[in-house]
Amino acid sequence: MPTLTAVSEVSPAASAWREWLEENGPKLLLFARQQSRSHEDAKDIFQDALVKLVEKVRTGEFVGGQD
User: How far apart are alpha carbons 25 and 2 in whole angstroms?
Assistant: First the structure.
């Protein structure tokens, strides 16, 4: 029977994304909460915004950020 081993390597892009999300996610969720009626609505808004961001990054449409 073959032995399964866990892959511990994460791509640099995935690592950078995780770091960005850990740093900015709570602030963005708080902003969404301030703009919505409930925590559940805020989570939906936050998720929708992240999906749009990822789509724009993947298609090269994203222009922004700070250096």
Answer: 39
**Cα 45 from Cα 49, distance rounded (Å):** 6
Question: Do the beta carbons of residue 30 and residue 48 sit within 8 Å?
Answer: no
* Contact predicate 32/49, CB 8 Å: yes
| Residue 32, domain extent | 13-59
Is 4 inside any structural domain? Answer: no
Kindly give the confidence (pLDDT) of every residue in the chain, 67 residues in length, as a single tens digit, with 9 standing for 90 and above.
556 555 556 788 889 889 999 999 999 999 999 999 999 999 999 999 999 998 998 899 988 766 5
